[in-house]
Model the fold of this input.
Amino acid sequence: MYVAVKGGERAIENAHAFLDEERRGDPSVAELSVPQIREQLALAVNRVMAEGSLYDPDLAALAIKQARGDMIEAVFLLRAYRTTLPRFAASSPIDTGAMACVRRISATFKDAPGGQVLGPTFDYTHRLLDFALLAEGEPPLAPQAEPATGPVPHITSFLNRDGLIEREEPSDEMPPDLTREPLELPANRALRLQALTRGDEGFVLGLAYSTQRGYGRTHAFVGELRIGTVAVEVDIPELGFAVEVGEIEVTECETVNQFKGSKTEPPQFTRGYGLVFGQSERKAISMSLVDRALRWKELGEDNIGAPAQDEEFVLSHADNVQATGFLEHIKLPHYVDFQSELELIRRLRAEAAKEAAE
Amino acid sequence: MTTERQAWMSLLATAPPARLAELVPDLPPHDMLRAPEIGAVMVRGRQGATGGPFNLGEMTVTRCALRLADGAVGHAVVQGRDKGHAARAALVDALMQGQGAAEVRVAVLEPLSSERAARRRARAAKAAATKVEFFTMVRGDD
Done:
């Protein structure tokens, strides 16, 4: 129950002023600029864009600064801003096959056309703190080589050619939109993928890890992981043709999973899919594992009761803004609710004491 | 014609706003048909890269339409929230349809295009330097 009470305006105002001061920190240390965050904390910016569902590096960097580095608070700020924007259009589906890749690896084919390109990865670093970063100085320039010019086909397309993996049939069915209509279950795969790509990275990671540990095992290999830029194309009705309105960086993961076959399908590999704004490799792999686990019904697999197979569980709890809102509301005044609980427990205790005395 | 216009509109949409402002410092007289407006585009992906579409998330864009004194109408939808970027892109789109197209191409589009190519090439070259060259380890004698 909620009862409006007055008071606390001054306390709130002063708390905000205190917050502003704490955000700034020690004034003898140079202030962090938004472009610095955008350029030097790019993976944090990427995460806020992915979970905030809005690709705008400047705004995501501003949100991180305003939130003092609290990522979920930053996601919340970006989501709130997003709701103020009119939506002009939906894009044509991006063509990840035409991605300008800076990273592209496969755990299944060593000699894939286009090659294995490591890109700017943390893999193979020693995870030792680099004290050289404490000192100011420019890093050496990255070496360059003759850029590859040929196409970089999706690795699963090789398996596709031989019929060894399930086909992804192209369609132009209008996908449902979580940000426009409330979540309804059962969800189709399009809705699940939207919920996962904006879902909390830690939550999706934990679920994906649980499938690897046996809670809904799907035997995933990373068929391909690619990071790079793709063009975003939009139909402009006034002009009667489509125009590229921008370029975004995305991470895509396709998993190849074991599948025994069913009454209607010969044995073949199946797929899990992850696609996330920015360089978000951990999230993209996690998403593809959870996507695959959630597909048990359409693939005729058993539901073994694993959390990652439970669509309602996964989709209802993946959103960290929603979760934070509900979780943290319990810290707001519940004086009247609590008062009634207090009265109830006093009465029960009095009754118990009376019974004990009799 | 359409494909050429698509190419310059795309080039203008992704141009760094500060660079475009440098190349197009002054706006000739024009009427705004649609003043620069910030909004969003829902970006879609495909399930499994080639299947049915799904909603990936939105991106910010700014759109603008204007008319020059000679009647040419320019449109722009550009990435980000820079209203000056959208206005200049629409202006260049209109100018490219008129008598001075050749000059605008040389003064604005060509530098933007070669700079974009250089940026892309540098990134691709750094990625290419991280391509793995596998070699088979020599086996010892039996």
Notes: Chain B has a mean pLDDT of 94. Strands of chain B lie at 30-46, 53-68, 73-79.
